[in-house]
Specification:
about 0% strand; about 260 residues; elongated
């Protein structure tokens, strides 16, 4: 589980509720009509914008924001170097057996393309096409949360307008203006809270997760093509580590030194 996502939402709600309680009663900010307008309108608007299967897919995609997938580029590079060493010692056909020990389906597919003697340019085209569609699927899931983040404040404003219209109809009773005005503003509060604490941050987290996964796949593509070109494993390692941040490169070097020392 990604504790940052859960903690962010819980702590954010805690600060908001704490701020409300310090300044008054929490029940002042509860209004069922506002909940119906903001939640109902936001969900309905999303169904209008996207097909049903895409909305269902978003429910699956959102799990990525709350879970931590072990995407370690250093481990991927080590695996590619291991494959490169096998290819250098025993030839490309020996990779068929090595592919059985590869867990990642994308990497395994690339290795089998090499074993089958596929033209390097075709290998690149196949893998990059798969990568492009993977990125497109991620983008679709993320765009639904971007849409939710834009619709929630909009329906909050619609709820406020409904409340103001109802208030103007009863201006003959000045005592009702204050309470109705506050209720009208609650919908804007609900919409802004949903958008800025849940929907927009989840969309940002999904974008980050997607970028991490795409980066690792790009490392795999470059590594596979280098193996097919018969490059020296040390050169491949240096090339692939150029994808990593300086901190990750240092951690990788430290790990390799420890392995050699052991």
């Amino acid at each position: 589980m990604d504790l940052a996502t859960v903690l962010g939402i819980v702590v954010g709600m805690g600060f908001v509720i704490g701020g409300i309680v310090l300044g008054g009663s929490i029940w002042t900010f509860w209004d069922l009509t506002s909940v119906v307008i903001v939640f109902g309108g936001t969900i309905a608007g999303t169904f209008v914008a996207y097909p049903m299967d895409k909305v269902k897919q978003a429910l699956v995609v959102v799990k990525k924001a709350f879970t931590t997938k072990n995407l370690n580029p250093t481990e991927v590079i080590d695996k590619i170097i291991e494959i490169a060493n096998i290819a250098r010692r025993e030839g490309l056909l020996a990779l068929e057996e090595a592919a059985e020990n590869v867990d990642d389906e994308f990497l395994k597919k690339g290795v089998m393309l090499i074993v089958d003697g596929t033209d390097p340019e075709l290998v690149r085209n196949i893998l990059e096409t798969e990568l492009a569609f993977l990125e497109e699927r991620h983008s679709e899931g993320r765009s639904i949360f971007d849409m939710l983040g834009s619709l929630a404040p909009a329906f909050g404003m619609i709820g406020t307008l409904i409340g103001l219209i109802n208030m103007l109809k009863t201006l003959e009773d000045p005592s009702s203006v204050g309470p109705k005005m506050s209720v009208a503003l609650i919908t804007t509060f609900y919409g802004a809270l949903l958008a800025n604490l849940i929907f927009i941050p989840i969309a940002a987290k999904l974008k980050l997760r997607s970028r991490e996964e795409i980066l690792i796949k790009e490392v795999m593509v470059e590594g596979l093509l280098s193996i097919q070109a018969g490059e020296n494993p040390r050169i491949i390692e240096v090339k692939l580590k150029s994808f990593l941040a300086p901190k990750q490169r240092k951690e990788s070097q430290d790990t390799n030194k420890e392995s050699v020392g052991a």
